[in-house]
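Q&A log
Question type: sequence-to-structure
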Amino acid sequence: MKSPLFLQLHHDNQEAIHLELLAGLQATNAHTSPKYLYDALGSRLFEAITELPEYDLTRLEASVFAEQAGQMRQVPAGAAWIDLGAGNCKKSASLFGRFKPRKYVAIDISVDFLHESMAALQLKHPALDMVGVGIDFSEGLRLPDGVSDPAEPRVLFYPGSSIGNFSPPEAERFLRSVRTACGDHPSSGLLIGVDLVKDARQLEDAYDDALGVTAAFNLNLLRHINQLAGTDFNVRDWRHLAVFNAALSRVEMHLEARATTVVRWQGGERVFRSGERIHTESSYKWTLSDFEALLRGAGFGVCQAWTDSNQRFAVYWAGV
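Response status: OK
Response body:
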């Protein structure tokens, strides 16, 4: 039986992280990158979020694949399957029977997250070549040399509507880098999940559930910032807030100061007035036509979308 190969190419720059976080906290409108939501505890909390009745995105995506994978004839079988933000690898693994990849490349920021999942997956697919790659593709995707043969077809897989964390200009820049990573084989392309615009109340409930799991996920960010930037946030001084910004077609997550509070760090501090917010995440929601236009603007050719019966979630194939 083969064993997965692991390449850790990303290494945290602690000084850069420290400076980035403090710059965001000191901005006129305080903000942080959503990637800092995902420390060990944050990742486990997000897994719990996907099980909540209010958060139907994961289930809708799974239903599209379960009901319509047989219709996705444009997606080539026998390609190198390149999983962006692979995590526990379960979404890709559920599609192996349909698409029969020649090679599986799991990409995440740290291969430590991939070891156990890929080892278990290798047992189920002993003849499949597998590579785990630790890179941060949040600023653009560049595949390391030798990960797959550029002369053979590639399927880049980006499920879960993570593209929603990018603003539209950022999303187009990122998708341009994905288009380049697809290579020039005529069968290559991108298979991507996209959350669609729907009722504002439904969207806000999905990001502010009754059990408070999403609130805990968001508030845990403050503990993570304390570790990374040496701040002294007190979680009890803050509340979780989720709102749908219709003008920008995005759900916004914020942390709001319950009362005036001072946050300190070595060499500095900031006073947050009562009601002042830290913007922690945006999740853009798309219409079918607008997302197809985004894909075409990024350089993709033929585009095909499949949705659930109520058009709340879409899976796109964007060919080169």
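Response note: The longest strand covers residues 238-245.
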